[in-house]
Each structure stands twice: as structure tokens, then as C-alpha cells.
Amino acid sequence: MKPIYLSVCALLGAFSVCAQNGPSNYQENIKKAEEFYNSKDYKNSGLFYSKAFSLEKNARELDRYNAACSWSLANVRDSSFVQLSKIAATYSDHEHASQDTDLDNLHSDKRWEKWLDQVKENHEKAEAKIDRPLMAKLEQVLKDDAEPIREWMAAEKQYGVRSAEALEKKRIMKDKHAANQAIVSKILDEKGFPSQDAVGGYGVTAVFLTIQHADQATREKYMPMLREAAKKGDLPNSSYALLKDRTDLGQGKKQTYGSQIVTDPDTGKSYVRPLEDPENVDKRRATVGLQPMAEYVKRWNITWDAKQYAKDLPQIEMLDKKLSAEN
């Protein structure tokens, strides 16, 4: 199984656990599949993957790979190969697949070597497309983006939001982000948005986070380019959704997907920044692969109630304007 993303095929008529009261969208079913995998209930893991795929035609490659793992471990070879066949034209991690013990049950099947040969061919083609100097530069950008944020947040937690220590860490973070912005802007201006084939997932993430953490003018400048990257599949739709939310808020509009959360330094209470049509936000989030709001906001100790949020929205807008002016 792949370590970052988790992953099946048919058998939709045999849901022993996935009853009508089960999860209703793609991401919820993927999560249930992962939970069953982790508890070693591989058949039900496969069944939840199947339900997820019935809800989303363009399922993620690594979800399908991990579905194949679940079916292999459940000793349902045909279902495993159905999933592997669906990613055969694009999957390129030959080293992982050839060593993945989750797929050991498939090795005696004649279909295995044929699939693995295709993966090896994909890998060789992918290697030829990689821009290693650019990939290395963007991986450093990603590191320089993340570390100052962690240090700033740690200082806020230890010393307080308005403490001298936290404010100094925030200044360092902004300086790092400005330096990253100069690097990434030059890349985008000269080369356009780099493909995943050229710089890998970390490289693409570095570009996205740099623009997400940039000033408003920079976000607006490159937003059309990142929109096109999402359409082409080089940038996850979920990432573009976060960029759209932050950019729209910066223009005085309400956010669409509810991704932007702020903590009031005076009260320590976090809130969802002004959101359009809160009662339908989960439908919009599902279309871009984001988890439901109730689950997302738990990390800020927020209890999501769309109707109550709608009632509170005028007060939230006033508070948001106040905090934005202070920032």
C-alpha cells in the first residue's frame, strides 16, 4: 500500500457493511476504506473503495492502487487486477509496486508480470521528463515555506499571539515567504506552471503554497495560471479551491469552500471566515475532494452548524473586517 494516499473494483452488490446508511460521498468512503484496511478487514476495505469509485468517475490513481492492495490481501485477485488495469497506462512507481508485500498474492498470476512491465515502461518515460535542478529548487522552497510557519505557531502557543517572540517569528516567516515568492514568480514567468511530471508532487505543492502565502496582488496575478493547472491535472482541485477562497476574501468577497479559518487573538476562539451559502458548502467541497466541514473544522475546536453560522454571519463579517485591518 502507498504510504501517503490510500486506494478497487466491483462487487457492488455484496456490501455487507456499506448499507444505505453508509458514507455518502467519495472522500468519506475512501476514509472508511482506509480504516478497514488499517484494522485488517481487507474485504470491507475493498467494498468501501468500490462504493467510492461508484460515486466518482475520475477516481485518484493512488486510491485505485490501494484498492488493489485491499483486494489482493482479501485474496480477490480479479478485483485487484481490475483496479491495476485502470491505472496501468499512468502508474509509474515501479520500485514501490515491485516490493509492495500487499500485492504478493498476485505474483503467481500471469497478469502480474504484464502489468509490472507496463509500470516499468511508464517509469522510464517519467524519468526522462524530470527536471531535477528545478525539482531540487522547489523542494527547498517547500522546506523554507513550512519551517517558519511551524516555528511561528509554536511561539504563539508558548508565549501568546501578541508576544514579542511570536511577532518576531511571524516577521521571519513573512521574510521567508517573500523570498520564496521571488523565486517562484521567476519560474512561473519564465517557464509557466511546472508539470507534475517535471517536478513531482512536492514541487507542485511548493508552487501552490508559495502563491497561497503571497500577497494579494501576486495571488490574483497567478490565479488564472493555477486554475489552468488544476484543469490539466497538474494541481489538485482541492489546492485551487484553497487559493480561490483566500483570494476571494482578499477582494472583499465571501469564500466558497470554507477553507479559511482565523483565530481571534483576544478570545482565542477560531471561526470560519465569511462563507457564501453555508448550508450547501459540503456539496461544493465534495466536488473538489475536500472533507465535510464538520470534520475539517474540528482541528480548531469548532462545531459546525450551517444554520447557526448563517445567523451569526453578520457578526462574523464585522469581526473579520476588524482582524483583517489589524493584520
From TrEMBL:
Q: Which Pfam families match?
A: DUF6624 (PF20329)
Concerning InterPro entries, the annotation shows: DUF6624
Its domain of life reads: Bacteria
Stretch forming the signal peptide:
1-19
Q: Which key words tag this protein in UniProt?
A: Signal
What is the protein named? Lipoprotein
